[in-house]
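Record filed below.
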Amino acid sequence: MDTHTEKMADGMMGDTFGRRYFLFLMVFLGALSAFGPFITDFYLPTLPSMAEVFHTNASMVQLGLTTSVLGIAIGQIFFGPVSDKFGRRPVLVASLLLFSVSTLASIFSPTIEFFNICRFLQGLGGSGGIVMSRSVATDCYNGRELAKILAIVGAINGVAPVVAPVVGGLVADAIGWKGIFIVLLSIGVVLALMCSLFRESLPAERRIKGGYGKVAKSFVGLFRLPWFCVYVIMFGLCYGVLFAYISSASFIVQDHYGFSELTFSLIFAINAIGTAVGSALTMKFRRMKTAALFSTAGLVVFSSLQVVASFILDTFAVYESLMFMVLFFLGFIFPSGTTLGMTEGRSSVGAASAILGAAGFAFGGIVSPLVGLGDMMLTSGCVMLGCAILAFAAALAGYCRKGSDV
């Protein structure tokens, strides 16, 4: 670690207050990491009912998921590099304020079009938390230590997309879809208040000097790093698998198989266990590139079985069993993919975090409306399989690479 990192670590762990701040930082980074998925997925159980509320079709309601995902992707591209110039804390505060204002506006949406615009702005605001969760960790740690911290953040980031609908289903069942956005607003306000306790992790001497041209140059420079690009594509494709599942699951489980919103939430909770276990087991691998290869290979196998099952075994038990295994293998990619990407892009931490996160949500935004075309059982499986095969090819290339011990 460099001098600043060593001093920061000593400051965190040297006394009781330092240890408390270290624990606070882990909680804070974990919450910021989960914030984005909660923005996109918290209201998933209400998608069918919201179509009735706004007198529109399923695709128009699903567009709200797409706009929020694209907002998160675009926002990370902006906030990440800017934080390399101005520091993490002020950028984080600004993004949380944007989220809070847009969430408040969404509660009073008169039309689905206005609601979808608010969802885009929510995504922009929430993106700051996601990009900072990776950037701050990389500011403070490297090597195996970074892998452990990003394993925690990555695990939370992986579990959050499947936990969010569980909580959302309970909230929606009790107080309706507006209650979900009241809860999101409360979370945004709490995180903004927590920023007062957060110590800046990027000192002035390590920030990008000069105008915005230098910021853009550092951003563009990352795309000249071939292995960084490989891991970004791999990570994004795995997010495509995830969003193919979460954007189709509420319709498949509730409309196709006839389960209630509450039951749907419980099913998501069970699947969240699979993702959590996979994420936790990632650190059993000595090298993250091995974990990534193992993860993507499993995705190919069980996505293939899901496609076959949609033709010959259309039962809920088969569907749920295969999806549990898909999410289990997906759990390994969040810590491993994040660590591999951030290690390759350490020259511009904020920009690297932005690109990595934006790729995930960009792929998610592209995939989400595709699963609604035709028979959702079949199209969701085909989209997952296509993403899984391409992700496996990228992971295999990284695994065969010489000179990397990550």
In short: The chain has a mean pLDDT of 83. The chain is about 85% helix and 0% strand. Residues 295 and 329 are 5 Å apart (CA to CA). The radius of gyration is 20 Å.
